[in-house]
Amino acid sequence: MNDPKALLICNGYKDKRYIETIILARKLGKQPVVVIEQADEVERIISASKELGAAPLIGIRAKLSTNNSGRWGKSIGEKSKFGLSIPEILTTIDQLTNSNLLKELKLLHFHVGSQINDIAILKDALQEAGQIYIELVRLGAPMGFLDVGGGLGVDYDGSRTATTASTNYSLQNYANDVVATIQECCESKNIECPTLISESGRAIASHFSILIFNILGKSLVPSENPLPQEKECLIIKNLRATLKLIKSIPQTSESDISKLQETWNDALKFKEDSLVAFRLGYINLLERGTAEQLTWACAKALVERLPNIDTSLIPKELKTLSYNLAGTYYANLSIFRSAPDTWAIDQLFPIMPIHRLNEKPTHLGDFADLTCDSDGKLSQFIDNGQVKPLLELHDLKDNEDYLIGMFLSGAYQEVMGNLHNLFGSTNAVHVRLTNEGGYKVEHVVREDTKADVLKATEHNPDQLLERLRIASESAIQKGTLRIKDAQKLMEHIEISLRNSTYLQE
Ligand SMILES: Cc1ncc(COP(=O)(O)O)c(C=O)c1O
User: Fold this and answer.
1) Does the pLDDT at position 74 exceed 90?
2) Exposure b/e, 147-169, CB count within 10 A at least 16 = b
3) Report field, pTM of the whole predicted structure over 0.70
4) Candidates 68, 76, 111: which one to mutate for ligand 1, based on the most atoms within 8 Å of Cβ?
């Protein structure tokens, strides 16, 4: 804002006050460009300019016809929300000419949608926009700027492919294509090349944001072999025999796959038998538990025999066993607050532990968040261009933090996150690298407290405390609560209201 030549691109819906502010900003000595995105804005710009006796710099957002089939592809094309069609652009030129404002038309803008995966889409759009730019110059507009919008993609999964989590181009390829295509268009028609503007958001912000969360615990299916009891029912004996058989199968042999499949079918049948027997009252809870544990022990023994076998030969049912055996790691976060895109649009972010990196992860797992929502899970991970349901993780150690980083999370997650289940914002720290090679924490933004979140949902924490005090008073009178306990209860709630919405210990 201190550079007098810097442009202030004003896009989005515009009411009268917005347009007047833009014009006044020009009088202030700034370079505001009002980008016409809807046809009805033109008249408002013309009348505000007359009223204020000054005009803004003017830009037009074009609705290109280029096809973008990507996730944000609806930002372009005839049915897109913003931009002027070619007939509307021609009408706008007439309106601006008639009101003597064509001399202020300096910029052409387009936006093909966020996260362009395939560079071919951008190339088509650039060619189309280049030709429109040339035509605008021919129609008498001074022009000078071409704004290629956002859309520069991020290679989230590192695969360098035209898939949703990646891009088939690098930053340099993108820059080369933008510059070369526009240069070629303009030079072939002897038109001076414009100054290029880009509005990349995601590509700039993504790398600067990391979400770090701690793991509170882990759940595993019980797959240890339970100690034999004196008298065991037939179902349990059968399961023990099946387990013994699986363990006798050598680890590498491919010819044993059908044997593995057969034993697993047996184990499932015996498990089913145990459920029926329990429902009919023939076995007790302990026996049902033993049968379940033995089934998982069979699954574990089976999976241990699979790794050396070509995965294409493994039947699907056996492949999913490792998924069923994997642990769920409980994450101290809300997906809906801090990573909503993973839930809403299956966005893939690189996720990995941020320490113990010199220690081989020996477990597979996914993450469940703190919300009561069964959708609150992170169970899609990058896998060299593919998606895998489990991540390699370490076993948890007592009294030791296990911290996980979600990388490339950018600016969109934070702003789109919501108060689902009343989980508030997380602590944020702004870290800057120093010239000496170290880093410094520049700024700490405190997380929401429970009181903050209650207020945001129209509750009054002071009133809640007062009601609790009155209820305690009455319990003390009745003799059901000791004064000491009442104090403790009030203290817990008071401290809790001032504290994080996430678990602390
Ligand atoms: C007009 C416009 N410019 C720029 C952007 C930023 O896009 P991106 O973050 O994909 O670079 C957007 C967002 O969709 C947009 O609508």
Assistant:
1) no
2) bbbbbbbbbbbebebbbbbbbbb
3) yes
4) 111
